[in-house]
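Are you able to produce any protein sequence you like plus the matching backbone structure tokens because I've never seen that pairing?
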Amino acid sequence: MAQHLELGRAGEALAKTHLENAGYEILDENWTFGKAEIDLIAYKDKVIIFTEVKTRTGTGFGMPEDFVDARKQKLLVSAADEYIYLMNHQGEVRFDIIAILFDKHKNYTINHIEDAFWPTGT
């Protein structure tokens, strides 16, 4: 498996554990709709949380969360709209980013950004 895919999977596993330890229920992982994939879909306090996980080994090109650009956000919102429809969810939703940064010694930091962005017209 390519190294960047292994890094991404490791980051998603860390993010899932982070959410579970914070009291979130994981509803789905790697849920796809069209060209969009939502890494983690969680539930807490009657809110569905659509979570994008970004994992990097350095900040030379920016922080991990900087890679959730407007195009990616639009794809996530489109997939989330379908998920909400399929689940007939009538409550609140939120879009979070979990940014994971590894250093050269394989230590990592997790930055959980709640309400990272708001849906705009899709």
In short: Helices lie at 3-21, 70-87. The beta strands are 25-33, 36-44, 47-56, 92-102, 108-113. The first helix runs from residue 3 to 21.
